[in-house]
Every structure is written in C-alpha cells, then in structure tokens.
Amino acid sequence: MSSLSVHLNTSPELPNKVLNHADDIASTLAAVGIDYRRLELPQALRPGCEDSEFDAAYGLWLQALMGEQGYVRQELFNLQRNHPQKLELRARHLDEQVQAKASAWLFIGGFAQLNVHLDGYVYVLQGERGDLLTLPGGTRHWFDLGEEPHVLALCLSQQEEAPERSGEDIASRFPRLGE
C-alpha cells in the first residue's frame, strides 16, 4: 500500500499527517501543484528483471507516455538486494536535487521512497506499483532506494540534463526508507 507522510521541514521525526488512500494522497499533493495518479500498467514485472524483458513489456507503452508528456530522458531503477552497485546508486539520489523542467516518477514494481521539499514541508511518498507522481520544474526532491533495494521504477524528465544538487542538507535530516 502506498503512503504519504507530510512533515514540516523542521520536524523530520513527526509527520503532521499520514495518508494511505490514493484519493487522499492525490488531493493533498494537488493542493501544492503535484499530480499523483494510480496507473494501470501493461504488465507485472519484478525488480531485477532483464532489460530485454522490461523493453518487451514496456517499450511501446513507455514511448507513448513519454511522447504525450514531452519527456526526453528516462532513468530506470531496476534493483534487487544483491545488485553489486546498490550502495552507489542509492547514494547518488539521496541528496536533495532540482531540475528546471518537469519530471515524473513511475513505480512499476517493488517499492521506494520519493521525498519532495516544497513550501516549508516535506512530502514523503512510499510508492508502489502503479504510482505516478509528476513534479513541476524547480521542485526539490530526493529518492531513496533503501539499503536493501527491491525496486523497479522510472524517472522521466522533460530535459536531457540530469538534476542538479540543491546544496541543502535537508535530505540528511529525514529518515531513510526502512528507518
């Protein structure tokens, strides 16, 4: 089950609210300009599947989604607990990042945590299969795969360049996935 906790950026340990229903999550995020939807996905795949299996199941569907929304870049997170680069991949996304154009995070299998820092609050989504979160350009965020990752997710972007680090240390003050 997906969940969203909302924290003041000064109180990472104690959320103001915790939501578990998709409609509640969507309305809370919509109030701050973030689109959250549940999608019917073409096929169930497990984290750690072969790239060729992912491409066969999602290639055409993903091309259509990217074309509709103007996404030009994708980054696939396809990790299981035994992935040899899991610590490096996790560390690369644990600092707060920002990019000029819109991005979307699609959870296909397993689970992960997307943190969004906006207007003095941090919105912590523990996402699962079918969750799609669209962030407007300029939205500060960080992504946590967990110490023992089990995730199949995509980050789609309307710009070719990777996000830049914001230079703030807020991500280090918030609990990590699984803590």
What does this structure look like?
- Helix content is 22%, strand content 37%.
- The protein is built from four helices and eleven strands; from the N terminus they run ββαβαβαβββββββα.
- It has helices spanning 22-30, 51-69, 86-93, 170-173, and strands spanning 3-8, 17-19, 35-38, 73-79, 97-98, 103-118, 121-128, 131-135, 140-144, 150-157, 164-165.
- The strands form two sheets. Strands 1, 2, 3, 4, 6, 7, 8, 9 and 10 form a nine-stranded antiparallel beta sheet that branches.
- The longest helix is centred in the middle third of the chain and has 19 residues, at 51-69.
- The model has no long low-confidence stretch (mean pLDDT 94).
TL;DR of this structure?
The chain is an alpha+beta fold and 179 residues long. The chain has helices at 22-30, 51-69, 86-93, 170-173, and strands spanning 3-8, 17-19, 35-38, 73-79, 97-98, 103-118, 121-128, 131-135, 140-144, 150-157, 164-165.
Q: Give the SSE order as H and E letters.
A: EEHEHEHEEEEEEEH
Query: Total number of helical segments?
Result: 4
Mean pLDDT over the residues: 94
Shape: globular
Q: Please bin the fraction of helical residues.
A: 10-25%
The count of strands amounts to 11
What structural category arises from helix and sheet content? alpha+beta
Which band does the percent of strand residues land in?
35-45%
Radius of gyration, CA atoms, in whole angstroms = 15 Å
- Describe the largest sheet: 9 strands, antiparallel
**pLDDT under 50 segments (min length 5)?**
none
Q: Between the first and last Cα atoms, what is the distance in angstroms?
A: 17 Å
